[in-house]
Amino acid sequence: MKTRYSSLVALKKDAMKKSERVVQQANAALNSASVALELSYNALKNIQMPLRGSINDFVASKTLIAAQRDVIKHNQDWVEYAQNQVELANEKLKSDTIEYEKFNYLELGEIKKIIKLQKAKESKELDEIAVMTYNRNRQEA
Questions:
Q1: Do the beta carbons of residue 126 and residue 16 sit within 8 Å?
Q2: d(Cα 58, Cα 51) in Å, to the nearest integer?
Q3: Does domain 6-108 match CATH 1.10.287.1700?
Q4: Mean pLDDT within 46-53
Q5: Which residues touch 19 (CB under 8 Å, ≥6 apart)?
Q6: What is the mean pLDDT of residues 123-127?
Q7: 16: closest CA among 125, 103, 141, 137?
Q8: Is residue 141 pLDDT above 80, yes or no?
Q9: Burial class for 131, CB neighbours closer than 10 Å (0-12, 13-18, 19+)
Q10: Eight-class DSSP state of 87
Q11: Where in the chain are the domains?
């Protein structure tokens, strides 16, 4: 049944669905960032310091550890950014859902009014038919 709110409800539902997709994408990005962070921690654990050798080996190992720490810092920042994006997406989804529910409620109220008016009209028509039938039966008798 079409009401004056039907188009708004459709728009709000589309916005809500889009927000749900954005939340899913943000969660996927957060998962990717978390996996990357975990992998960078594992890579740092797997770096072995040379126990003997030349100073160049020690310097190279130290440089490798410093680079891996930079990767870890970058991945930590990425996780933090992804968490913020998830929070923002969830807030947007919440507001879009509230808007959708609000207009959906208004549309349902409008539909109930229309149905009530239709039932009253139908009842009135049935009453008129009953009166006409009664009068015709009375005249025939």
A1: no
A2: 9
A3: yes
A4: 85
A5: 89, 92, 93, 96, 97
A6: 91
A7: 103
A8: no
A9: exposed
A10: H
A11: 6-108
- Cα–Cα distance measured from residue 97 to residue 14, given in angstroms and rounded to the nearest whole number: 10
Instruction: Name the DSSP letter for residue 48.
Output: -
Distance CA 114, CA 106 (A): 12
Burial 24-61 (b: 16+ CB within 10 A, else e): eebeebbeebeebbeebeeeeeeeeeeeeeeeeeeeee
DSSP 51: S
The 10s digit of each residue's pLDDT in 57-107 is 889 999 999 999 999 999 999 999 999 999 999 999 999 999 999 999 999
Q: Are 16 and 37 in contact (CB under 8 A)?
A: no
Task: Check the CA dihedral 110-112-113-117 and report its sign.
Answer: positive
Q: Model-level pTM?
A: 0.75
